[in-house]
Design goal:
The protein is an alpha/beta fold and about 550 residues long. Helix content is about 45%, strand content about 10%. The protein has 2 domains: about 325 residues, Glycoside hydrolase 38, N terminal domain (7-stranded beta/alpha barrel); about 120 residues, immunoglobulin/albumin-binding domain-like, CATH 1.20.1430.10.
Length: about 550
Amino acid sequence: MAIGSFCLVLHGHLPWVLHHGHWPHGEVWLFEAAAETYLPLLDAFADGSCPVTLGLMPVLLEQLGHPRFTDGFAKWLSEQADRATRDQSEFAGRGDLHLAWLAEQHHHHFRALQARFDGIGRDIPRAFGELAQRGAIEILTSNATHGYMPLIKHDACSRAQVRAGVHTSQRRLGFRPAGAWLPECAYRPGGPWTSPVGDQTPRHRAGVEEVFGHEGVGFFFVDAHLFAGARSEGTQTPSGFTKVPWDQATWDDTRGWRSVLEPHLISSDGGPGRLVALARHPEVSEQVWSGDVGYPGDGRYLEFHKRHGRDGLRYWRVTAPKTDLGAKLPYAPEEVQGAVYAHAQHFTAVVKSILKRHHERTGRHGTVVAPFDAELFGHWWHEGPRFIREVMAAFAGDDVVRPGTVSQVLREWPADKVVSLPEGSWGEGGDHRVWLNDETKWMWEAAHGAEDRFLDLLHRLDWRGSPAVAEPLRMAGRELLLLQASDWQFVIKTRGAVDYGYRRFCEHLARFDRACTIADARGRGEPDDALTTAELTDIRLHDACFEDLRLEWWS
């Protein structure tokens, strides 16, 4: 009998980039992720041997199902295949036969991706949905645009993010996911709250578990430090809820209180738990994420940062983490399988060791939860999808650890503890500093002002009785969702794309403002002019997502 479970959780997300530039932080960003992560993961999961829990964020689903993507991606794959052919000729012409051979392999690879994409009807969301419906994987939903929950001002706007996200997941996948990925693993409890920017009037707001629970979501994920700060509230079994002292988690070692190896029910009001939270295991995650010991830094793997030309193909290996890009050695695919196998064996050994120690100490079944960005597997780490298959193959013949989706594990080993959690995220410092700091404070002041304005218009205007008013108001709602994306502050703080983050936020804020102004004018009976028509067309063209958006989501 297995003494523990293993849940690999992948978080697939990219902000809305269609119609917002091409390279490097535009549509090519999405094309590369589809070619290097999403299609390879489809192949890795196809035979049902990898019971992974996969978060496909609603804004990502919207893009992967959009005609702009399907047409553009097919064209881009063909262009990449042609690029590889040109590289092959160049390398062969200067006598570098190994690089020429690698270029030939790139050409075959892109042609195979074209065939795979055509073979699924160019519908990546539907292909993943079919895998989930037959039980091969589990798919998570989330906020519509990866909105950062703890810093959204109004509950109505938090609910709209979740409602739009759940609705989009169901529409694109064909079913309603049972679990959710919290953007940036950012949790907020229910209760009194004072905004850190702008209006300092105290208000009461709903906890994350309440907002998601109302939409039928059953579980989500947080970082380990939130479990360390959990307060015991009660036990919950089939016979009911039993209240316990707040300090019981500090001395009761019979239930695994605060352990990241145990799921916990979450409650902000001290009563029965609403949803289950599962925590990231730091030691397990470090095996992949660590810049010092993480597997992707092995010298045999494909080097991500060196390309042939400005935005060309990759032909070199890591060589060594500190090796200058100019000194990287050519990629040698024949050396990779041994590295992948060895790393998968080490990874599974770490998981088994952790679960054995937990069982010996408590006698309880433990669950290791290992969440990662999906794009790490294939995009950043070319060999990542192969690593996942090797890990699952290693567990398949093991009687100690059983891999499974989160829903599968929770059905067999339900949470029996109720706790209240502190506020926090998986960002630097475990708090909000990545998203709220001196560089980005003004963005939150503007976002909160946008929330106020939008809710005021919803209250004042007769959008239910006037399609002419509802049209620009829906556009404003769409822009509000998009400007709330956590990505803009993230790329500014991490210096990954500072100007891009500022530009995208300001563009969505400007379009939001124009849509609100037009809705307000129409509500007063003012006729449209040529500029109004042009501005509405601009908004439609740039941000053609969540086309079935409902203003009732903010009610």
